[in-house]
């Protein structure tokens, strides 16, 4: 071999060596220098996270009785259904689950490249469906039954409006939560109304994660690990389940009896019971109600019901106050020194107060004769309070009524959607007739919610302290740690004199004595103080039957407001209802 | 007649190197094909082992046949080659948009793989006939024409990668035969200047994409770009020592494209790491060194030229295949010699190495 050829061989070998060196250098760059980067990329390639739904927090009443829990529900899902088997399996599932085949195919199509995640076909199927799928296991490859916590309202209709309900998050809410920085999945359940909604953040819990190894088709190879979900916190309510049940059943009974007796205008009502010593809501009922467990099936019927069962009347209803307003007038007159407990005004049954104004009368043109404030309240004399209204004038009356919560929200934060109501008052730019003060003095023209009425009653019982009404006493973690404990919060205390309160309370106590408008309550095992109301509703319709009261009269622990729409006069529906409630609640006294 | 001298001159190191690469290949093929469409995890590795054993006997035949026979029948081989390549165009089996195979029931023959070896032989004989006659700048032209015909047919299949191998072979062998370097540089530069735009017109869109994607994988995030990125992730994530045989997540979870054929190096680099990859590179370097060494000691120019042709072919294929998997070379679909799964490439390469061993052991003239 010539020398020049040998030289060329060396050059050739050098080029080969250079080529290999370039490859080795590149390998060093990728495998050693950039190892961390590529290793991380490989890990994200192969590992997918699957959410594991956390159980929602449970809800208890004040005595630890369970109100809302979770039960295991069975969900039929598809995981990696072989293509060959698809038509047969889809046809069978379509029949069994009563779903269109198209729907199932769509669900499968959506999960392309996500075969590691089960495709949820139907939530909460019956045990029968589960059994049928189990029997045909061999013919149904890829069909799996998953268990998922399903919200369960232990007492069905019980306090339905207060507790609220959950549903799959609506798209608008999903976006809103996202904007607020809260990540929900589109299939997540969320509280829509009531406590379920206001306490969503406590109840929700933290979803766990399942780490799944997948291949490039997104097919699940194996489960690598698990991060357990943290269940939501438990709520302990101020609601007294026993009282709530009594209130609900009594309300339903009175309304149904009224309808049975021929008053077909009846059909709605609401009751709120507060603890006047702290603002705890002990019972809060609206009639008619619904069963959140079957809400999805019932929704169309409920939405078309003229009595609007979904409406939280106790919180959002607006009712004329009627004669229950008279205590506010009395407080104003007493506090202003226009009368004292002994001052006498004579009721002539009928009187014209202003020239040009229509003559005003007591109910049925009854003549009450000479009355002090106690008897005027007990017997609900209109003339007495017309007289006080005239002496006070509308502006002073407005100030006092506002201080007792009329035309204002109670400030409840445990439920959303409270409305302030209406207080009839002189307004700039609007014509004010001298006679209007008379209307205002006997409670017509104002609108109030049952909760606000109960709050007013509690102020009458406790001497003017406006506590913020609340429903949630305590929030407790799964480990039993208290993360929130409600403290009674005084929002307002006008500081009126004890003599004023005592005079009014004496009148309310006399209501339930012989001669009072609520005298049928005198046989109860507990002394009840109160005031009836018969509020004019729409023309040609029966008045709303109202009662506000507290018990025991000597040391109030319950302040209650009751409204039976179109129930007639106070003593016709609301007083019997009060009687039922207290006789049942205090049965063992 | 078999002489004892042949045995003494036989390059056992070269044979051992090939066997070592083969063993690594079988391990990696086994790992890369545990999950496969046949359902038998050992299907591919068993088949490749059988192909290797058959190839070994073919190589023995090549070794024991005096290479002057190849010199003698070079023109016949060249014609046979063209006939086979033509047959592919006529009877070829379509696969993945390209016609490269002739189906022979149990085996699909890919004549383009053997064409490389045949052209090395015929080109060597052609060059020997013009030995020492390379002063004219036109002197290389006949050799370009020599390869142009088979190359064009293969290009039309289309198989761009394999057709490029011929260019490397002809330049390598011309260089060894004594062609002027400045002439070769001139042809290389003008070839690129003229050939590239011309080629661009003929190429199909997916071929252009494959060629360009390594410059910017983001351009084709779903297709070749994705493949390329998965390959680089596999290799990079292998790190210094690798994830262990059968433990590569990229390969075992099927993130790698063509992982037992074109991208088998990615599996190796992921599972055996930088260390394993460099060992393989060193084995290739050793193999090529032994071939080049054989070229230096060959008894005649024909032998030397065949060796250089084989060395050029192997070097180019290693460079282009591994370069592709690490993202510095276009995606051309050239198999990695002795490592990628498949019989045609394996046998062609074994025949080529057999030729070199043949030349090596017959390096001294025998006395009669």
Task: Describe the overall structure.
The complex is a heterodimer of chains A (589) and B (368). Chain A is of the alpha+beta class and 589 residues long. Chain A folds into two domains: 49-73 and 149-237, Penicillin-binding protein 2a (Domain 2) (Alpha-Beta Complex), CATH 3.90.1310.10; 241-585, Beta-lactamase, CATH 3.40.710. Helix content of chain A is 36%, strand content 22%. Chain A is built from 19 helices and 25 strands. In chain B, strands 1-2-3 form a three-stranded antiparallel sheet, with helices on one face. In chain B, a hairpin with a 2-residue loop joins strand 2 and strand 3 (107-109). The longest helix of chain B has 34 residues, at 264-297. The radius of gyration of chain B is 20 Å and the shape is globular. The model of chain B has no long low-confidence stretch (mean pLDDT 89). Chain A binds chain B through residues 1, 4-6, 8-9, 12-13, 15-17, 19-20, 22-24, 26-28, 30-32, 34-35, 37-39, 41-43, 45-46, 213-217, 221, and chain B through 172, 175-176, 178, 230, 232-240, 249-250, 253-255, 269, 273-274, 277-278, 281, 284-285, 288-289, 292, 295-298, 304, 308, 311, 315, 318-319, 322-323, 326-328.
The count of helical stretches of chain A stands at: 19
Helix content of chain B: 55-70%
Number of strands of chain A: 25
Strand content of chain B: under 5%
Mind sketching the topology for me?
The complex is a heterodimer of chains A (589) and B (368).
Chain A: H1 3-33, H2 35-46, E1 47-52, E2 59-60, E3 66-78, H3 86-97, H4 101-110, E4 119-125, H5 127-135, E5 143-153, H6 160-163, E6 166-168, H7 171-179, E7 189-191, H8 194-198, H9 200-203, E8 208-214, E9 220-227, E10 234-237, H10 241-260, E11 269-274, E12 281-287, H11 295-304, H12 313-316, E13 319-320, H13 326-335, E14 345-347, E15 350-351, E16 360-361, E17 369-371, H14 373-379, H15 382-403, H16 436-441, E18 447-448, H17 450-462, E19 466-467, E20 472-476, E21 482-485, E22 490-492, H18 498-511, E23 529-535, E24 544-551, E25 558-564, H19 574-585
Parallel strand pairs in A: 2-10
Antiparallel strand pairs in A: 1-8, 2-3, 3-4, 3-5, 6-7, 8-9, 10-20, 11-12, 11-25, 13-18, 14-17, 15-16, 19-22, 20-21, 23-24, 24-25
Chain B: H1 4-9, H2 12-32, H3 43-64, H4 67-91, E1 93-95, E2 98-104, E3 107-109, H5 111-129, H6 141-156, H7 160-177, H8 181-202, H9 205-212, H10 224-238, H11 249-252, H12 264-297, H13 301-325, H14 343-361
Antiparallel strand pairs in B: 1-2, 2-3
Helix pairs in contact in B: 2-3, 2-12, 3-14, 4-5, 4-6, 5-6, 5-7, 5-13, 5-14, 6-7, 7-13, 10-12, 12-13, 12-14, 13-14
